[in-house]
Design brief:
Elements: H1 2-12, H2 18-33, E1 38-39, H3 44-52, E2 57-58, E3 79-88, E4 91-100, E5 106-117, H4 119-137
Parallel strand pairs: 1-2
Antiparallel strand pairs: 3-4, 4-5
InterPro entries: RNase_H-like_dom_plant, RNase_H-like_EbsB-rel
Keywords: Membrane, Transmembrane, Transmembrane helix
Transmembrane segments: 14-36
């Protein structure tokens, strides 16, 4: 829109008052900006510009952080914590686990990239690998 006003002035010698141009530019930017999914950015400058032009901003989905506590078990036992996950369903997946004694000392672990599968299969593979590793070390 700015180029349109500039070209009219330059090639047709038709000028427009800046006070009339600003609301037109804001309405056009707002109209076309609403067709896109603008996400919040970390720049307050970009936020101010988008707000000035009345472009709707969609907040990013918050990442959910979950605390996982490790609880000690009976003396003489080894605890195996396993998990598996996939990036997508199906997606690139990894399975893994770790072994600790009752004081929380790390005794060993394993991890394996298992290709493109869903999260359930990644968890099942982690369980099978944990059992296999446990039997291999006695």
């Amino acid at each position: 829109m700015i180029w349109l006003f500039r070209n009219k002035l330059r090639f047709k010698n038709v000028g427009i008052l800046i006070l009339l141009a600003i609301p037109i530019i804001i309405s056009v930017v707002s109209l076309f900006g609403s067709f896109f999914k603008w996400h919040e950015s970390h720049s307050i400058g970009e936020f101010r510009i988008l707000k000035y032009f009345l472009v709707p901003i969609h907040p990013l989905r918050l990442v959910r952080v979950t605390q996982v506590d490790w609880h000690p078990h009976a003396c003489g036992f080894i605890k195996c914590n396993i998990d598996g996950g996939a990036w997508g369903s199906p997606g690139h997946a990894t399975s893994g686990g770790l072994f600790r004694d009752n004081s929380g000392t790390f005794l060993g672990g394993f991890v394996l990239c298992i290709g493109v599968v869903d999260a359930l299969k990644a968890k099942l593979v982690a369980t099978m690998l944990g059992i296999k590793y446990t039997f291999s070390i006695g």
